[in-house]
Amino acid sequence: MKPTLALPCALLAISTTSIHAEDFAEGISDALTVSAYDDQVRARLSGLLDLELYTFSGEAPGLIFTDDSHLFAPRLSLFLDAQLGAPLYFFSQARVDTGFDPADDSLGIRLDEYALRLTPWEDGRLSMQAGCFATIVGTYVERHLSWDNPFINAPLVYENMTAIYDHEAPYDQADFADGLTHEKYEYNPVIWGPSYATGLSVSGKSGGLEYAAEIKNAGLASRPESWDGFDTGFDHSTVSTRVAWRPDMAWKLGLSASQGPYFTDEAAAGLPAGTGINDYRQMVLGQDISFAWKHWQVWAEIYQARFEVPLAGDADTLGYYIEAKYKFTPNLFGAMRWNQQFFDDVPDGLGGEVPWGRDIHRIDAALTWRFSTSAQAKIQYSIQHESGGGGTSDLIAGQLTLRF
Amino acid sequence: MIRPLVLLLACGCSLSPAESVIEGRVTLPQGKKAPVMAKRYEIVTKGGVLSTNPPVAVVYLEGDFGKPASLPLRSIVQKDYAFIPSLLPVRTGTKVEFPNEDDTYHNVFSFSPAKRFDLGRYRPEDKPVPFQVFDKPGMVTLRCDIHEHMRGIVLVLDTPHFVVTSPDGKFRLTGLPAGNYKLKAWIDSRTTLEKPVSLSGGGTVKLDFP
Question: Would an 8 Å CB–CB cutoff place A87 in contact with chain B?
Fold first, then answer.
């Protein structure tokens, strides 16, 4: 079957079976759950099958990697969640897809997440976690999976490639100021999606105050290939912290900070004499606010990031978004998001200064129809404008998700 | 969660000498495995093992009993990340409220054809307590949009004569009028057993569902 036909065919299949979908999904869920020792040890395998279709004017936006003007991206995500007695919780995620982010590559399988969490007290005052897992920074992580995300892509600051190039130091100031001159995948955003790097975390809460801290093998901007701690080691670790305050259930205000090197080992040889990878750091300060009540959910985050760039000095950027979701009916919800990112000036190598990226703004709109508790279809339209001759481009995307 | 041993309160009927009783036992299926709460992306989580409900059945008398003048308000509480009770039989037209007694949001919803609704997110202190009127007979599966493992069932019945079995399957239906009926045992979404029953006014009929 042609990839472009797969989405409507799958949709049709879901529509015609929706009457029995609930029973069928329950049966699968029961079959994929095991329990032993009087329910003290329990494990559940679950999954998401995503079929995504993107079409866009201009270059592929964000973390979509193709030279074509459209892309079909299938993805199977398998999740294992296990509760071992009251205090121990283990989870993992394996994926079959064409790349961690949508790409026109061949299918491959990866283990993206695995972690063990110890929660000694039932009131949640302290949890400790070790493994390869999503960052504690910000609020996007908790809704980044396709079933929970009102959109098909991530907020701009989590996917907009900047001129930061983690494999190689710039040759001179002009080289850095030239911006994205290589293949897009060679560059880095401020935060690469959910950032499943490897490390340790502690978290907990006391009253309305929540806290978390983590030490990871790779920084927030690092690419998925850097997240495996066994491959890349812990010589260049990043520390992140987060505090959040819940004045009541509807509101949450958070503050996140992160600091750590962003260059990979490959870049070491090209760094200025006398300096090493740990001398060039990414620093991120994030603020977030979220609100939920009845059928409304609203999230907003603002990130200030600084990359210490050899020869070019500090490269600063500021990105933010505000996102709202509203459920019209049990089956239908819609979402809108306004995103913007600004870039500060860096030396151009000719005695002047230029922005180190094109200021960009983007508006995303999406509608999701839930056929049942195990199938949904989403459509999204995005339009973005880049300053400095970048022009305007748009994206239309569709996503069919089956959950089991 | 251990359910109170026998819930024999559903009929709201008083037993008079001309009224009959049916009692017996339903063979219940094995209990469900305890759910696993997915909390990988929650920075702050609580420990603990989720509670499970022992399997129970609903036994009811099917017939034409007319429409009631009024129906009592019923309630399903969300507590400790579970619906309590997890199975509630009600008569068609009953109003059921859904109080939240956890210190977190819940979002009760149903995609079931008998009642499709979404209460949105609400706090324990939100008033009035969100409710639904179940005006069509059938099985309504309750879920929480935030806590995927939560399940509850409202079984909407066109009869005033129903009862939830005890966890060992025993039941007793009282205050039944004379006549020929079908006695049904709802066991799960795929299994409803039935037997004809003849009530002649007064006395006790013994009937088991193997």
Answer: yes
Could you tell me the CATH number of the domain that includes residue B141? 2.60.40.420
Comparing CB atoms, the residue among A42, A212, A330 nearest residue B109 is A330
Distances (CA, A) of A7 to A66, A379, B52: 19, 12, 38
- Domain extent for B151: 67-158
Does B91 reach chain A within 8 Å, measured CB to CB?
no
User: Where do the domains of chain A lie, and which CATH numbers do they carry?
Assistant: 3-398 (2.40.160.10)
Q: Are residues B79 and B111 in the same domain?
A: yes
Residue B53 within any structural domain of the chain: no
Torsion of CA A348, A349, A351, A352, to 10 degrees: 0
The answer to whether the Cβ–Cβ distance between A212 and B190 falls below 8 Å is no
pLDDT in tens, B147-186: 988 999 999 999 999 999 999 999 999 999 999 999 999 9
- Which of A39, A127, A141 lies closest to B49 in CB terms? A39
Please tell me what DSSP assigns to residue B13.
-
Closest partner CB to B44 (pick from A133, A210, A292): A210
Q: Which of B46, B105, B118 sits opposite A123 (nearest CB)?
A: B46
Q: Indicate if B154 and B171 belong to the same structural domain.
A: no
Q: Is A167 on the interface with B (CB under 8 A)?
A: no
Q: Which two tokens stand for residue B29?
A: 């299926």
Determine, yes or no, domain membership for B11.
yes
CA-based nearest distance B148→chain A, Å: 10
B78 assigned to some structural domain: yes
Q: For residue B98, give the nearest of B109, B89, B90 by alpha carbon.
A: B109
Cβ atoms of residues B119 and B110 within 8 Å: no
CATH code assigned at B188: 2.60.40.1120
pLDDT band (50, 70, 90) for residue A122? confident
Residues paired with residue A88 on neighbouring β-strands, in sequence order: A84, A118
Q: How many folded domains does chain B comprise?
A: 2
Tell whether B143 and B72 lie within a shared domain.
yes
Q: Are B119 and B186 in the same domain? A: no
Same domain, yes or no, for B25 and B91?
Answer: no
Of A82, A195, A190, nearest to A136 by C-alpha is A195
Contacting residues of B for A30, CB less than 8 Å apart: 32-33
CB contact under 8 A, B111 and A330: yes
**Chain A residue whose CA is closest to B34:** A39
Tell me, yes or no, whether B142 and B193 share the same domain. no
Q: A141: distance to nearest CA of chain B, Å?
A: 7
Alpha-carbon distance of A206 to A130, in angstroms, equals 22
Q: Same domain, yes or no, for B71 and B152? A: yes
Q: What is the pLDDT of residues B88-107, one digit of tens each?
A: 999 999 999 999 999 899 99
Verify that B137 and B177 share a domain, yes or no. no
Q: Which residue of A has its CA nearest to B49?
A: A86
Identify the residue among B37, B41, B43 best suited for mutation to test binding to A, counting A beta carbons within 10 A and taking the highest.
B43
B107/A330 Cα distance (integer angstroms) = 11
Cross-chain residue pair B189–A23, CB shorter than 8 Å:
yes
